[in-house]
Amino acid sequence: MNRSDFLKVLGLGTTGLIIPNTTWSQKPVKIYDNYIKGLTHYQFGKVRNQLVVGKELVLNREINNHYDSFAVEVFFGTYKLGYLAAYENIAIANMLEQGVNFKAFVSKLTSNPDKFFDGLAIEIYTNIILENPKIIETDLLEKRADDAHDSYRKGFIL
Length: 158
Fold this sequence. Notes:
By secondary structure, this protein is of the alpha+beta class. The protein has helices at residues 3-10, 44-47, 90-97, 151-154, and strands spanning 24-35, 56-61, 72-76, 79-83, 103-110, 119-131.
């Protein structure tokens, strides 16, 4: 058998790899919900009145930050609001570097009368990919058909 015939037998001929017909879906998962740091040092005050719970924010990996090697900036449009806390940002920073897509939203706003100690919490979501569940969930898929509990398989009582 030559190489070309061998690859065709494996399904690797001119049509490409044959992959089983499996359906996949994506599910959003919240991976972070906490206050961001540095609000008083950046542009939070300029946009404070535009922010409401649910407003979308943008995350940016700041690679050349000499204070935090895993710095993740938080933006509202072009306005920098602050950073994810240094003790919580490592996994998200690494995932951003690998191209993982995140959606970030305002999850909580706290305000004090003096506006100096306002707080902004954000929640971050990403999608996980899941194989779609079986159409019918039943324990019969793991048991013998003769072990099913139904009238037919109970037998006749004489």
